[in-house]
Amino acid sequence: MARVYNFSAGPSMLPESVLNRAAEEMLDYNGSGQSVMEMSHRSKVYEEIIFGAQSLMRQVMGIPENYKVLFLQGGASLQFAAVPLNLLTGSGKADYVVTGQFATKAYQEAQKYGEINLVATSKAQTFSVIPDLDPAAFTPDADYFYICHNNTIFGTKWPELPETGDVPLVADISSSFLSEPMDVSKFGVMFGGAQKNVAPAGLTVAIVREDLLGRARKDIPTVMDWKQVVDNDSMYNTPPCWPIYICKLVLEWIQTLGGLEALKARNQYKAKLLYDFIDNSAMFTNPVRPDCRSMMNVTFVAPSEDLNNAFVKAATAAGFVNIKGHRSVGGMRASIYNAMPVEGVEALVAFMADFEKKNG
Ligand SMILES: *Cc1c(COP(=O)(O)O)cnc(C)c1O
């Protein structure tokens, strides 16, 4: 069996041991005589999976007691609307920092529901930095302050979180989820699609501070109302049963690796291998200001479109797949999420060095 090194930005690689375990349990989960895909979400056997996944998420992330873990559907994109629908009911105002394409989408979606203030944007720098913030531009009575923690397409990450005082910080963590320890108490809400680092596509996770529940607009669709979701144990309607099961296996895998601290060290090591090579290369460059570089999505370009295309083609043929940059930016992007082994990054660096030698 030949497995490729898959640098896809999402859906992306899952740990091989998780896939093997799921394969072993496919036809008969834990003596139930059924696969997880087939069982009732109201059954005892499934309750152990969903509640087990929630409680493991709390353990692994160190989630404080006064936060709830919600399993949702509709992707991070549905949360772009769910955030204002759930929270924009005090002053009706919110602050947004626009650092890339997903932050732009969230900002545009929120404008349907209230008075949205653009605090800062790095659009003029083609999103190659996280912009400096002027606290004088913050709205003191905002219902929340919104950021995208890791910008998947442009390969940037917030070097430190903004200080928003009593205004709850809301963060899209789709592509930095479970990549390193995060101080949950600094956030009002964190949410992300699971398909980058946590599970297959179909599951969206939100972590919501309790005092932010119950503020939703009266006309919010019930399935989007975080309080309804919590009151129904994330089973107001049928949950994405299979992705939640894989999420549980991924969390168990993280525990066996030594938790998020150990994972962070491994992720930093992988990212450094790649950035160090790029910084010393005469062919490849990374456009991101070093203090804003993402640990998960490493973008790079060669000096010409022809070379970019030749690189992607040669890399694909050599088993490094999905390494083409996002269609809106071009170039290359290596997404090196948790499940990408160190050997995958080492092999990519060796391949890049060889390509440079032959084509430089
Ligand atoms: C992938 C991604 C999204 C979109 O997620 P969907 O689940 O496709 O809606 C949003 N934000 C970030 C940061 C992402 O990486």
Fold and architecture overview:
The chain has 360 residues and is α/β, with parallel strands linked by helices. It is built from nine helices and 13 strands. The protein has helices at 16-24, 44-61, 75-87, 101-110, 226-231, 241-257, 259-280, 305-317, 342-359, and strands spanning 5-6, 67-72, 93-98, 115-121, 144-148, 150-151, 156-157, 169-172, 189-193, 204-209, 297-300, 320-321, 332-335. Helix 1 (16-24) packs across helix 6 (241-257). The mean pLDDT is 97. The structure holds pyridoxal-5'-phosphate.
Index terms:
seven-stranded mixed beta sheet; single chain; globular; 360 residues; alpha/beta; binds pyridoxal-5'-phosphate; 15% strand
Secondary-structure topology with pairs:
Elements (H helix, E strand, L loop, with lengths): L4 E2 L9 H9 L19 H18 L5 E6 L2 H13 L5 E6 L2 H10 L4 E7 L22 E5 L1 E2 L4 E2 L11 E4 L16 E5 L10 E6 L16 H6 L9 H17 L1 H22 L16 E4 L4 H13 L2 E2 L10 E4 L6 H18 L1
Parallel strand pairs: 1-12, 3-4, 3-5, 5-8, 8-9
Antiparallel strand pairs: 2-10, 6-7, 9-10, 11-13
Bound molecules: pyridoxal-5'-phosphate.
